[in-house]
Amino acid sequence: MHKNDSPLIPITEDELRPYREEITSFLKNVVWRPDQLRGGKTEIDVSFLLQVGKALQIDESDELSILKNAVRISEDRTILSNSTNVAMNALRDGFCTGRHIAALFEKSSGLESLMQKNKAGNLHQKELPEFHDKLQTQSAVLLFSAASYINYILKEHRTEEADSVQIDFGGIPEVSLTRPSKAMQCSLYYLCAYYERSGIVKNDIQLLKMTRLYFERLQEEIMMRKDSLKDISFFENHHYKLEHSEFVVKGFEKITDARVKGVTFNRISMDDIVANKDAKHLFRRYAERLLCYDFKRSKNPMLELGGLPSITMADGKPGTGKSMLIAATATLLKDRCDDLGFPFLFWPLPENIISTYQGGSAERAIEWFRPMQDTGKIVFAPIDDAENNLEERTRQGVSAGVREFIGVFLRNTEGAYAINNGNRLISLFTNIPDQIDKAVLSRIQIRVSMDGASNFADFVDQDYLWWRKYEKMDKGFVDTNAPKGHEFMKAQKQMSSLNELDSKELEFHSDDLKDIYDTTAKNSDVNSHAFFGKFYENVLARFSFFSSRDLRNIQKAVDARVSDFDFPKDWWEVPDRFFFKDYDTKMNMLKELMTSNLGGLSFEDIRMREALKYIDTAVRINETGINRRINQTAEDLFIRQKAADQLLNRG
After folding, report:
1. Is residue 353 a contact partner of residue 160, using CB atoms and an 8 Å limit?
2. Mean predicted confidence (pLDDT) in 438-464
3. Does the pLDDT at position 39 exceed 50?
């Protein structure tokens, strides 16, 4: 069974309550015989275990108290410090959760009947291996589930301060999986030994960091032993979700998602944005495509059909409407998701993504990407002012933090584990596209320019959006004459297809690109596959930045144009007619729409236009930086000349 199809088992607070007394007793007093004192071999320095009042003898038990150490670290016998209290509650609730999931494993795996036989003395000799194997797996399930919950809670508490604390954590000396009670005692004993005897944990933030490191390592230890465990399917074939929480256990899968809350945004309609017709159309289209996502199958048929890019970019000079487009897209998605009952997450890149601590930027970037791996939400993840955090790495003065973030971005958008289920859209918005790292640019599948108001109708309509508020308050207050023959906002009407923007003639903004096209067209039939092979070869010869990834992006743009059609209105009015149908039915319905949409289109024409548009945009971005430096140099020379002239006049 695929994990995404695994049944979800809810865990209620009432189900965890019976385990609290047992776990609390372990926190008060935990007894263990350290295996390393009996001659065990390890690369971990365990000398701190011997720093006790009396030297431990072989096979002698040691006794520690986590709660006493919590009081010591809080320096208050009555009230624990807030961070220590958070850690203690995380330990208690985490092990309660682990005990409950381990109990579910006991029932589903047949371990319960084996335990009853063993207790009654009826366990057959042949059943002993199975009995011990299942006890071992149950212990691993308990520890892994507990560690997952503890990490989930502590990741959210004083994150910035904890990340900045440097702790020399040696590792876990011993992990016992003989039976659940022993597993808990062993893990809590060594945690407490670090608290009390390592000399590292002297305040609550160090306790918080040590606890995080300890249980992150414990998760890794269990994952390393996973292949040797038996009967794990009884655990891995189910997901476990804690009520009133986003915490989920998905088998032996390390998920450290923090509790995610969407960022609030200003509500704006696409109709409130003047000009930028193609940008508004594309982002409206991609928002609608996201909603085709099938939550049961964790797949999107539009992604499979090629109509949904994973990364887009809008660029333009300041003040042309990029931030408004972000808000308008979020508004559209939120409203549609509310209508359909889909969970929506607006997840912009945070302003503090770049950390001053080494490795901090990478860690923050990983945390930003985690919610986008959640198959239970529709996610819109814009990156505004993208040139600040995704700056070209070869530029002088680029910080180590930016390099870390770019590394994580590249691995999570096109890499071995960059899984895209079709429920997310990452969009870059920038004023200076030429300053964005070239490897990042190459991953952007759809690029659109935002020039803002550019003609008479645009400027008049933008003014209209401003002064109409006065007219609404007091009819006749604005007594300025309307332009003759102009209908306000008609020029801003929503398009049904990008075909409305296409002119009959091919457009070239780059003279070099036009020369390449004309030269290739003279020697090859433009309607042949050979033409495109030669054309791309000539483009590469002239523009070294062009690569096979750019060709894939062109192909993606063609796919998007082929699927550029409106959904029937009744799909929105009665969602059962499409959005709530099963995946295969939705796929077939979309294919029918796509087929009918192809009727009035020429594949050759779309292919040519998208190839030229993509390459033309890439050339423009590449040359923008050069032109900016030329203009800056010319301005500097002009100022120097003026200064020299003024100095001469004074003389």
Report:
1. no
2. 91
3. no
- pLDDT average, residue stretch 513-517: 92
Assigned CATH topology for domain 270-452+543-628: Rossmann fold (3.40.50)
Least Cα distance to 558 among 609, 489, 596 occurs for: 609
185, 61 contact by CB (below 8 A)? no
The two three-digit tokens of residue 46, written as one number: 């365990």
Domain layout of the chain by residue ranges: 18-237, 270-452+543-628, 456-492
> Residue 419 is encoded by which pair of tokens?
């899984």
Cβ atoms within 10 Å of 317's Cβ, excluding its own: 11
Residue 12 main-chain phi, psi, to 5 deg:
-95, 160
List CB contacts of 571: < 8 A, sequence separation 6 or more.
Answer: 577, 578, 579
* Alpha carbon distances (Å) from 55 to 50, 58, 69, 185, 412: 6, 10, 20, 21, 51
Whether 251 contacts 104, CB under 8 Å: no
Residue 12 · residue 243 · CB < 8 Å? yes
pLDDT band at 163 (very low <50, low <70, confident <90, very high): confident
- Residue 532 — pLDDT band, cuts 50, 70, 90? very high
Closest CA to 267 of 328, 212, 198, 197: 328
pLDDT at position 214, please? Answer: 95
Q: Are 429 and 388 in contact, with CB atoms under 8 Å apart?
A: no
Strands 8-11 and 239-242: what pairing? parallel
Count the helix, strand and coil residues of the chain and give each as a percent rounded to the nearest 5.
60, 5, 35
**CB contact at 8 A, 546 and 539:** yes
Rounded Cα gap, residues 223 and 144, in angstroms: 8
- In the beta sheet, which residues pair with residue 448? 314
